[in-house]
Specification:
Shape: globular
Helix content: under 10%
Radius of gyration: 23 Å
Distance between the termini: 30 Å
Length: about 450
Amino acid sequence: MKQIYLLLAVFCNTVLLSQTVLTSYPFNFSKELQSAQILTAANHATNEVFVFARTDKELTILKYNSALFLKDKFTLSPQYTEDTLLIGYSFSDDGNPTLYWSSGDGSIITIIKYYFEDKRSKALLFLFPVKTQTLRAEYQNNNSFYMLAESKSQSKLILYIFKNGLVEEKELDFSKFTFENNNATNLNFRQILKENQIEKMEPNEYNSIYKANSKLKVYPLKDRIILTLDNNIKNTQLFDIDLNTLEIIEKNFPQPFSKKTSKASNSFFHDNKLFQINTNEEEFVFQIKDYNSDQVIKHFDFSKHDTIPFKNSPFQIQKNNRKPTALKNTASFLKQLSNGTVGLSVFKNQQNIFITIGGVTEKTIVDYSPEDIFFGNNTKSFYSTCVFFESILDKNFGLTASQQEPLATDKIYYFIDKNRKIGMQSILKFKDYFVLGYYDLKTKQYILRKFTDGYN
C-alpha cells in the first residue's frame, strides 16, 4: 500500500521543487519485471550507499561513496534465494552488507553476507518458529536488522537482532501488565495484539497519518524501544523497554480533559515528548507533555465555533488520493474527524516542529494486479477519506506565523504521483537530505534523486 504524504495539499503544481538527479544505472528488467526487486540502503557508519537489485536470474550490488559516485559493484547468481523475498539488510563492522531473504511462508530466513574484497558470499539459515510466533514488524536500526514477533501462547514479544552473522533473541514479557478497553473490560496483552496492528514509526522522519492513526505504535530508538497504546480513550499507556536489561517500565498519561464526552483520542511520541489529542464533534483538545517529568508543556483546546490558534494550513479533506479540497471551518473539520480514527504525526527539522493532525475513514483492500503494484497505482487497492491540518511550532513549542513550506518527503510523494511510469521506489534518509531511488520503465534505469526541504 502506497503512503501519501498529506502536505502535498499545501503547494500546487506551479511550485519549483528542489530535486537533483544524483546518479543512474541501467537495468533491463523487461523480461523479469515480475520478479524484480530493488532496495537502497545506507551504511551510516561509513556514509556509503548501496543498491541491491535482484531478479530470478541474478543479483547486482552497487556500492556508492559518500558523494554518491559509483565505487564498486558485482553481480552474482541468485543462489539460495530462489522463490524468496528481500526483507531487510544490515552492515557488518567490516563495512560489508548482509541481506535477509524470506521464504514464502516466512519460516526460513536466508542470511547472506556479500564480500566486496573478493566478490564472494556466505550464506546462513535462520529458522523462524512460525508455529509458535507471528512476525509483527521488521526494521533496520543502528546498522542492524530487527524482527519483532508475537508469541502465540504467551503475553510476550520476541525481538531478534541480526548483525555480524549473529542473532540475539530477546523476550519482552508483558504478562504482568493489565490493559483496559473503553468499556472498562480488562484485557491481556495477546488480546491487545489480536485487536491492533503494530505500526512502526520512523524516528526523525515523517510518518503519515495513515500509519500514525494506529492505536498501537512502536518507536525503535538506540538500545531502547517505546511502545504506546491508545486502546482506552481516556489514557495513553506507554512502555519503555530497555534492550540491554529487558526491563519494561510502564507509564500512564491521562488524555487531556474534554468538557464533552470524548469520541476519539490518540498520541505520538517524539523526542521524549508525548503529544496527545482528544476529540468529539463539539471540541478538540491538544496537549504536549514531557515524558520524564509528566509536566504539561503546551495545552490547546477549542470548540467548533473557535479559530484554531496553532493552525498553519487550511483544513483539508482528501478522498481516494484525489486532490485535497478545503473545509470551510472548524465545525466541518470536527464533524469529519469524528467519523473515523484520529491520529497525529510529529516531525522536527533544524528550525521547527511540524505536526499533522487528522483522521482516516473507510479503508478498504481489494484485488489488484502486479502492474498496479509496480507502478504504485493504489486506486484499486486503497480507498479512504482523510481530513487534516498542519501546525508549525518553534523549538520552544511557541506559535509561529510561518506558512508551511514543502518538506523533502512532500516533494518525493508529489514526484511519485506525477510520474506513473516509475516503480520499485525506495526512500532513504541520507545526511541532511532524502534520496528517492526508483526504476524508470522508459529509460530502463534505476535513478537516485536528491530532495531537500523548502522552496526553490
